[in-house]
Fold Glucose 1-dehydrogenase.
Amino acid sequence: MSSGRLTGRSALITGAGSGIGAATADIFAREGARVVVADLDKAGAAATVERIRDEGGVAEPYAADVSDEAEVEGLVEFAVRTFGGLDVLQNYASNRTVVPEDVAVAGADAAVWTRQLSVDLMGCVFTAKHALPHMLRRGGGSITNASSLVGWLPLESRPAYATAKAGVIGLSKSIAVEYGRQGIRCNVVAPGPIVSPGTEGMYTAEQTEVLAEHMAAPRLGRPDDVALAALFLASPEAAFINGHVLVVDGGMSAYAPMVPSFRRLAGEG
Ligand code: NAP
């Protein structure tokens, strides 16, 4: 069901060839946005565009590495040239190839940290840097960056990822403060565990059961859950919301840590 909440808007979405970014591109296009579907994965971006066009939406694919500033500059120029400007920026690109190497801080490998931070954090810096002048020229715009629950509730592993995602919050609030008076809104979506290609194989069956046990919801998250939150943040209804972190975690971070143990003691499983 679409209510045309983004009609007339042009949107640039990174990481839109997979998972949450792809779901966001689908939903934004359904809501009337013209979407540049950007991803390192050219085939993924093309598949998202094909889906959108099949539904009658407007989208263009673009292959770019968000950790490369020159490529990001080209990407933003493409979006502006193709759709006559830029109103909405959404950052979902994330480097999952470093997961097995992103372990204990005492063994931190500079190259691994750089690979994680350069995509998940600097990608957001570069896209904002190049998009902001265009948005300011139009009198405003909306940016949403993907953080994660892990940004402030880290797992035992993935310290570089946790650091990147914490950094995304600081960056987004900085943009909100610096440019809010000029009509720019910059918010954050912070997903809990979402079943997506990005998390495929990340958790064992037993770990997935533990995740489900820690949900204050009857299921794990889906890419659409985050995309719909992002739609709200990008929509006119969120006009007075700036520098906000919208947690989309099925209530995982809402309760005291001992609740599952108490439930087990009470025989609730
Ligand atoms: P995903 O399925 O792995 O999608 C991420 C996309 O980013 C992939 O298509 C990937 O391409 C692309 N990408 C990787 N490096 C890139 C680069 N340098 N430049 C441009 N694109 C690049 O991820 P997801 O699970 O949907 O997550 C989306 C966002 O939400 C991420 O920022 C993630 O950290 C965050 N998040 C996800 C969860 C979750 O449980 N899924 C939880 C919290 C936060 P390749 O396939 O070629 O690598």
User: Anything to note?
Assistant: The chain has a mean pLDDT of 96. DSSP finds nine helices and seven strands in the chain. The two ends are 37 Å apart (CA to CA). Residues 19 and 196 are 5 Å apart (CA to CA).
